[in-house]
Amino acid sequence: MKIIHCADLHLDSKMTSNLSKEQAKERKMEILRTYSRMVEYAKNNDIKAIIIAGDLFDTRNVSATARNLVKDSITSNPDIDFYYLKGNHDSDNFISKLDEIPDNLKLFSDQWTTYSYGNITVSGLEINKNNESVMYNSLVLDNDKYNVVTLHGQLGDIVLNNLKNKGIDYLALGHVHEYQNGQIDNRGMYCYSGCLEGRGFDECGPKGFVVLDIDDEKLTAGFSFVPFAYRSLYTLYVDVTGAMTTQDVAVKMEEALAKSQYSSRSMVKFVLVGEVDVDCEINTDFLKDMFEEYFYYEKVYDETRLLINYSEYEKDASLKGEFIRMVLGSDLTEEQKSEVIRCGISALSGEEI
User: Fold this and answer.
1) Are residues 143 and 167 in contact, defined by beta-carbon separation less than 8 angstroms?
2) DSSP symbol at 11
3) What secondary structure does DSSP assign to 277-310, as a single string?
4) What is the dihedral of CA 128, 129, 133, 134, to 10 degrees?
5) Does an H or E element contain 214, and which?
6) CA-to-CA distance for 293 and 290, rounded, in angstroms?
7) How far apart are alpha carbons 252 and 248 in whole angstroms?
8) Could you give the CA distance from residue 3 to residue 81 in angstroms, rounded to a whole number?
9) Rg (CA), the chain
10) Count of alpha carbons within 13 Å of 307, Cβ hemisphere only?
């Protein structure tokens, strides 16, 4: 039996933190389409169940488009069971708007609920303040079956030690937006599937879902992560040490890109690092404009450090020398000194700050 484990889809997310209004609207629809593509993947690959381990939606006010898309995906695929465990972003808005609960939509509550497929079980619990202290002792599983358990929360809040020797074979987790897995005990493992699509630069790298392939006679399983996002987000650190001009930096960015091989559909954050001279000129707005046709979206951050030879300015009688000595003798932190000097040199050179 094959099961998809996904989580943190955040359908209907506003997507406005980085993107233009038009891009945000487009990206919102792309995330809905990725959900639909996942269901189509399940249909074409003999998947019998989809576990949604929390945060199917992003807000309490679910749009009619998102609500109807999810409802139709369930009702039009009666051979696939959908296990929906609500996360901290979910509410009853979706369920309450259904005229009736489809037979293949399996829900959980604040008490352990278990569904069985012969020798395979799927159990889940929606954690709240009233049950978090008793949830471990109240979990009772049949050791002679293959037991899948689903929860939504962060490790630490979910205490793995309390789940040892409970008969768990696969713990399907949600809440962490990055694919992770590890052992619970000698028998079972835990897994965060991560989110289907990255929404911001704190969600970089491959995104998708996990396929669990269970042998219901041997009670063993294999699992694989399936990268599935339409767009990927990346943070690219570019060492620009030695650069003196924006054009020098652009050359180093081109060199870094040549090694990365990112798709043109990607969203990329360039972070400039390294040590540069006090007189180095870096215009991040110009660089952003220069590279905007490379990707769907990109941004440029300057996190370089100023390489200051203090002895050069000890006797420098210029305004720049006086300014630098004043800043270096202040009580500011090294990071603050660097930023003040950077802004001051730009101002003295007639640049906009």
Assistant:
1) yes
2) B
3) ETT----HHHHHHHHTTTSSEEEEEE--EEE--G
4) -50
5) strand 208-215
6) 8
7) 7
8) 9
9) 26
10) 11
Residue-level pLDDT at 294: 95
Contacts of 114 (CB under 8 A, 6+ apart): 121, 122, 123, 141
Instruction: Report the amino acid identity of residue 310.
Output: Y
H/E segment holding residue 270: strand 267-273
CB atoms near residue 4 (< 10 Å):
26
CB 52 within 8 A of CB 80: no
Least confident range of 110-119, 280-289, 321-330:
321-330
CB 9 within 8 A of CB 89: no
H or E stretch covering 213: strand 208-215
Q: What pLDDT was estimated at residue 351?
A: 65
Q: What's the pTM? A: 0.87
Residues, the chain: 353
Quote the tokens at residue 10: 């955040």
| Residue 323 to residue 266: CA distance in whole angstroms | 42
Q: Tens digits of per-residue pLDDT, 77-112?
A: 999 999 999 988 777 778 888 889 999 999 999 999
Instruction: State the amino acid at position 316 in one-letter form.
Output: D
Question: What's the CA gap between 193 and 172, in Å, rounded?
Answer: 8
Contact 50, 6 (CB under 8 A): yes
CA pair distance 85, 150, nearest whole angstrom: 8
- 228 vs 243: CA distance, rounded Å: 38
Residue of 8, 12, 7, 9 lying closest to 68 (CA atoms): 12
Who contacts 334 (Cβ-Cβ below 8 Å, separation ≥6)? none
CB-based contacts of 262: which residues, under 8 Å, 6+ apart? 232, 234, 236, 268, 295
Do β-strands 180-183 and 189-192 pair in parallel, antiparallel, or remain unpaired? antiparallel
3-state SS, residue 256: helix
Residue with tokens 């991560």: 194
